[in-house]
Amino acid sequence: MALTNIQYNEIMRGYDSLRASNRHIEAERKKALYLRLPELKEIDDRISSLIFSYGKRAVMEEYDDTDLDSELELLKSKRLAILADLDISPAYLDPIYCCSICHDTGFVDNQKCSCFIKAEIDLLYSHSNIKNLSRTETFDKFDFKLYSTENIDKATGLSAYDTAKKAYDKCRQFVRNFAVADENLLLYGGTGVGKTFLTNCIANELINTSNSVVYLTAIELFDKLSKIAFNNESDDSIYDCDLLIIDDLGTEIKNSFTDSYLFYLINDRILKKKSTIISTNFGPKELKQNYSERTFSRILRSYTTLKLYNNDIRLNEII
Fold this sequence. Notes:
The chain is α/β, with parallel strands linked by helices. It contains twelve helices and seven strands. Strand 5, helix 9 (256-271) and strand 6 (275-280) form a beta-alpha-beta unit. The model has no long low-confidence stretch (mean pLDDT 88).
């Protein structure tokens, strides 16, 4: 998903502000030096006039610029000598750019500059609702040592380690295929087994490749949906973002509204081929008990189910 017009304009306003700030600094520098050295201003004005004359002659196809060249070189030499006497670098009065590549325009040859891509990623993070701390939660920091090889899940026959490895591999595959496959994931398991860490790993990878991600707890999600439904507030991001993450489904207050709007949201994103990740403490049996048949059926048919099984990792880290 490309940046929305609002997001793009926000970045471009940042560039406008940056250029205006730098032009102000340039103007203040020149003003101070010109007051101190009127001769320098006369030289700079004459250089500007000569450069204009070059352009005028080019338009009129007059190519004999010998006289202009010699005068321009003389003026430049005088200018350098004046600045050298004051121990001022010639670059001190040059245009100021925070990005020397694109000169603070955001683009080079109609392609996004690296500084634009960074601004884009920072903006996507700020709009994602992901806390700054989670930017450090990446796949290479996923610690398999926290999962026991001896703690066996009776339902699957797999150890906590094998279960985590299976979920980890699928999440990495989800990221690799994101551009070409509209997949959805349901991560479930007890408290503190790594569900949120894995979803943050996915979010970080995708935001860093300029995909729009929105992270909401179930409580935050239904609060937004109620404001949209009853207060006429507008927020298309939960329907149109590249990836929606719903964390801790099941912690919200459940009623006919939450169930209806959850189904509508899930179904709408499936039809739009937009990916969604749901994490929950509920297993399939509890999901079926707590949500309508059509909601449960839609999740069951359209989501890859990943179970995480272990003791609370956060306790393991403390002990």
